[in-house]
Design brief:
mainly alpha, two-stranded antiparallel ribbon, two-stranded antiparallel sheet, 18 helices, 4% strand, globular
Length: 407
């Protein structure tokens, strides 16, 4: 597949476009978890540059906030605070690094042997389904347990926001189809302005230019143990992302620079993000779609996108403006978003032809789903294993200990 030739000015413009495509999803994670939006922008840019360094600037991907960590970050911040949660997320990045060495020795087959679709699929489904009540409550006007917008008003904003995301995803053409979150935010925000739900006082108070509110990690073994298993599902998804971008560009990135390098780059980006107080990084399928659409396969455009992200992170009023997006707008978007995550998990099982009439597979999927959605908790002294972390551990252990079904 031939790469088109682009001028430096076109490359810079393309880099800005890549950030634009990733932007809606990038800022949504800190908005939902209480992290600083400008830190997330900064760490997305720095993480992408680190990834490029590790992979020798061979892979055209952009790294930014991972949705898989939304529930664990929210739970971690509530229980231990941001600094301890960042310590756990730093350790989560190490999981990617360990898997990169597994891939270096045995390739993707070695990872798939220990983390097959029957393990990863239900864990991804739990990530989406466990967040469903959060999305619905926010769409109904709740911030936590407090109703901040009357239900009738909330639905008049949240439902058009959701419908916009649906229509853009299905009917959008070209670049527009890659921007459902951004389009939904624009529509929801416009309606929020009409209903008087937006408070601009934080924007007026913010400085034009300032450093983001960086938070250094502190290390609490409970937070570390809580976060470690969560990294498994997105790390395995990383393999799928590399296959996808390889298909788009006609180059086999799993072989060169190698899955071990791409996983290592992703892990280093995630751990580095935690050093500054940002969410874990992951490769963005929206950006892969934009690469396919524009046929601009030069990894250099991601360098420009990363530089734009770091520069934008320094604009104080921009971060303050993003924080004025009302909770009902985010709720409308999340209904589609979290449902889509659950569907990705289901598709993982279908694509890999996991036979659920096989008792062994059925047990793994069933127990994992009920533990995750039902809120199972395993108390271990002062530590509680629960949520996505518990699901990941449960699925892995069941896969290792249950005997293979004889046919």
């Amino acid at each position: 597949m031939q790469t088109q030739q682009f001028t430096p000015a076109q490359q810079i413009l393309a880099g800005g476009q890549m950030l634009f495509v990733a932007f809606g999803a990038l800022v949504l994670v800190p908005m939902l978890t209480g992290l600083d939006i400008r830190v997330a922008l900064f760490t997305a840019g720095i993480g992408t540059l680190i990834f490029q360094l590790v992979t020798k600037r061979q892979v055209p991907v952009f790294l930014a906030s991972s949705f898989a960590f939304i529930a664990p970050i929210s739970a971690g911040v509530a229980q231990w605070g941001i600094a301890d949660t960042m310590g756990g997320l730093f350790a989560a990045g190490l999981v990617y690094m360990v898997l990169s060495q597994v891939a270096r020795v045995g390739g993707a087959q070695a990872i798939n042997r220990y983390l097959p679709a029957v393990v990863v699929g239900p864990v991804i489904m739990v990530i989406g389904l466990s967040l469903a009540p959060v999305a619905v409550k926010m769409a109904l006007g709740f911030a936590g347990d407090t109703q901040v917008v009357p239900t009738a008003t909330a639905l008049m904003v949240a439902l058009p926001t959701l419908i916009t995301a649906l229509l853009v995803s299905i009917l959008g053409k070209g670049l527009l189809r890659l921007l459902p979150i951004l389009c939904a935010i624009v529509v929801g925000y416009s309606l929020s302005l009409a209903f008087g739900l937006v408070d601009f006082s934080p924007v007026a108070a913010a400085a034009w230019f300032s450093l983001p509110s960086f938070v250094a990690p502190t290390f609490n073994w409970q937070a570390v143990l809580f976060m470690l298993p969560v990294a498994i599902a997105p790390a395995v998804e990383h393999i799928g992302d590399m296959v996808a971008i390889s298909n788009v560009t006609g180059k086999n990135y799993v072989e060169k620079p190698g899955l071990h390098r791409t996983l290592l780059g992703d892990g280093l980006a995630t751990s580095t993000a935690a050093l500054f107080g940002g969410p874990p990084n992951t490769t963005y399928s929206e950006v892969t779609g934009a690469v396919m659409l524009t046929k601009n396969y030069d990894p250099k455009i991601m360098t420009y996108g990363a530089i734009f992200a770091v520069a934008l992170a320094m604009v104080g009023k921009f971060g303050a403006l993003l924080m004025t997006v009302p909770v009902v707008v985010m709720g409308g978007i999340m209904i589609l978003l979290f449902g889509s995550i659950a569907a990705v998990g289901m598709n993982t099982l279908i694509k890999h032809q996991v036979d659920l009439t096989d008792a062994r597979n059925l047990v793994i999927v069933a127990v994992t789903l009920v533990f995750g959605i039902g809120g199972m908790v395993f108390p271990l002294g002062n530590f509680q294993l629960q949520g996505i972390a518990l699901c990941a551990v449960t699925a892995i252990v069941l896969n290792l200990v249950l005997p293979r079904t004889r046919h």
